[in-house]
Hints:
Layout: H1 2-35, H2 40-49, H3 53-62, H4 67-78, H5 81-88, H6 96-103, H7 108-114, E1 115-117, E2 120-121, H8 123-146, H9 151-157, H10 162-177, H11 179-195, H12 201-207, H13 224-227
Helix pairs in contact: 1-2, 1-3, 1-7, 1-8, 2-8, 3-4, 4-12, 7-8, 10-11, 11-12
Amino acid sequence: MRGNRESFLGGMRVGAGLAAAGFVLAITFGATAREQGWSAVAAIVASIVIFSGSAQFALLTGLAGGLLPAIAAALLINARFLPMGLAVGPSLTGGRFRRALQGQAVVDGSWVAAHLGGGRFDRWRLLGATIVQWPAWVAGTVVGVLGAPSAHLVESLGLDVVFPAFFLALLVDELRASRLALVAAGLGGAVAAALLWWVPAGVALVGATVGAFVGLRSRTGQPQEARA
Length: 228
């Protein structure tokens, strides 16, 4: 029990830093959503239910091309949680409902913090890291929609670049992972740039996901050393 408590508190300490960054990002989401005509309730509910900065910003961007492209973009981005959840699954305990409830704690930062190596995860650290991030994300959204800063203040504080910087940080992190990620990013960017000549931004965003198919390349043809 003491070990579980220490893991949980350790997760909360990690999550506190992530929550602080998420709070600022959520303010930007809330303010941007209001600028695009969302109601305060819609923006807050989106943060409560979706709880994913990348998916929510993709939804905002994708709406420029229509509702279906926006939903498709958000679903494609959040699809990453499927393999992440499958990886964490063996480390969770209890029945199906309890395991499914614990699985709601799977978010990017918490997943990384809870990873012990060898396909093992510390579920208490996972829960501790997420339990402080979710309320911070929702609170930031509330601040953004109810006290949306003026355009001048947004520019002065640099909040207007938080959204693109957020995705840029994700991209840079992925590009460092492998050369294959670089190829996928280049292909996706090229497709999006070409589509922007004929279709709205939301549709181009969905089209850019074809770059991800590079990751489906079979590894059977790779040398044995590369697979080791």
